[in-house]
Design a protein that fits this description.
Length: 464
């Protein structure tokens, strides 16, 4: 009889799961996403392992992909992970890595250089278990399921081009060549040619055109958001605008352009009664600059480094949340409370500004489509992200109970829709099936891709 797993779950025989989280640039979002995926596997009874990369990895740092040891203390809590210095020598294995195409290879299919800091450790695993017995699962960038056309269009928008100018440029012969170049570069970087890799891309709403263009990408709901959120819902802020004095606004100010945005943000919060308390969670380099800004009738408080539980408690108490990136966005969608999104701005200091990297927000906007008041909510989310109409947007977000209730109901509906593509359940079922299957990893991965795509096309015929 197999040994019991966590919380009474049976130990899953026949497969070892190796974790390889990486920090991308300086953010923690990809680490947090890997931790959520790891907890799903832990709850299902799988033993998690980490084969330490060679020490030489620290002598060749690359800012793009920085490995993170899930057994070491850090700001992100992982489930129990066994640290190894030699891989297991038998049985089947699953390697779960952040952006496998960039982290696990030092060159692409055409010989182009890549960071590949995990290549040595993963090569040892493959040699030990045997290539047919090792399935690679890549957690791709949140919101990366976009077409070449939409990615280039968003880049030109961020550069300040009008919609008409972008349309003309992308429809031109040069624009079509750029789309082909983007397609090739994206596929090369993500290892689209590798048959034994399952690429999971978290999103709030799958893009079927992107699935047609990049069939290796499999969209899933954000990890930690699906069935568990419905079974254990957290309902935030059921009070009224009269409760504003509790803790009015909490702002996760991680983008570097937060300091430039802060004066306009504070100005838009002025004139409210009672006085607004703006609690800011910011990198140390930004704290002093934020506190030096004129506060007038807005009180600014910089939060010290908080544990995950204390951060969730602060979010619970807030009347409005302003979040950034991917994982804080997932957190507010899971919690269901009124929120706005700011991921940084580009543009001239005194000219029009545009939101930086909107793909996470755009995937949520797609998910809101068709819900009651979705158009108004989406316009306010996009306006705030662009730094436009701040006073009007904040007036509704802070003081309109109709707006706030529409946001709560919309987020609940989005989470319900996402059960059909639950990321936790998808990952666990893939690992469970591979453990039972006698298929070679390449054959198994191909079958998983075909089945997952067919189900998403069937469930989401209206997705764009």
């Amino acid at each position: 009889m197999s040994a019991p797993g966590p919380r009474g779950a049976p130990r899953r025989p026949g497969v070892v799961v190796y974790l390889y989280p990486c920090r991308i640039q300086q953010g923690w979002g990809d680490i947090a996403e890997m931790a959520q995926a790891a907890w799903a596997l832990h709850r299902a009874g799988f033993e998690l392992r980490y084969l330490a990369p060679p020490e030489a990895i620290h002598k060749r740092p690359d800012p793009r992909i920085v490995p993170f040891d899930p057994t070491a203390p850090g700001p992100i809590r992982f489930p129990p992970v066994r640290r190894l210095f030699a891989p297991a020598r038998r049985g089947r294995a699953v390697v779960l890595a952040t952006w496998w195409g960039l982290s696990a290879r030092r060159s692409d299919l055409e010989g182009g250089p890549l960071p590949g800091p995990l290549e040595d450790a993963i090569t040892r695993i493959v040699r030990s278990h045997g290539a047919p017995n090792v399935l690679h699962v890549s957690l791709e960038e949140f919101g990366s399921d976009q077409t070449s056309l939409s990615a280039l269009d968003e880049g030109l928008r961020q550069a300040g081009w009008s919609a008409a100018r972008r349309q003309r440029a992308l429809a031109s012969p040069q624009g079509r060549r750029q789309q082909c170049a983007y397609h090739r570069a994206f596929a090369l970087a993500r290892a689209a040619e590798r048959e034994g890799v399952v690429h999971l891309s978290a999103t709030f709403s799958p893009s079927l055109p992107a699935m047609r263009e990049f069939p290796f990408l499999l969209p899933v709901a954000p990890f930690g958001l699906g069935g568990t959120a419905i079974l254990r819902p957290r309902v935030w802020d059921r009070g009224t605008s009269a409760d504003l004095a509790r803790s009015a606004v909490i702002w996760y100010a991680s983008p570097k352009s937060s300091v430039g945005f802060a004066p306009a943000f504070l100005s838009a919060l002025k004139g409210r009664s009672p006085k607004v308390l703006l609690q800011v969670r910011a990198p140390p380099a930004l704290e002093e600059k934020l506190l030096a800004l004129p506060q007038d009738d807005v009180s600014v408080e910089v939060l010290e480094e908080l544990s995950p539980s204390r951060w969730r408690s602060a979010l619970d108490r807030a009347h409005l949340r302003v979040v950034s990136g991917s994982q804080s966005l997932v957190e507010v969608v899971r919690g269901g409370g009124p929120f706005l999104y700011f991921n940084g701005l580009v543009g001239k200091p005194r000219g029009p500004t545009r939101a930086f990297r909107r793909e996470k927000l755009l995937s949520l906007v797609r998910a809101l489509d068709g819900l009651p008041r979705a158009g108004a909510l989406s316009r306010d989310l996009l306006d705030f992200a662009d730094g436009r109409n701040l006073r009007s947007v904040l007036r509704r977000a802070l003081g309109s109970e109709a707006w706030r209730e529409a946001m709560r109901r919309a987020l609940a509906a989005v989470v319900l829709r996402l059960t059909a593509m639950d990321g936790d359940r998808t990952l666990v079922s893939i690992v469970q099936e591979f453990a039972r299957s006698g298929e070679a990893a390449n054959t198994f991965a191909k079958r998983v891709r075909e089945r997952h795509r067919a189900r998403l096309f069937r469930v989401n015929p209206e997705a764009r």
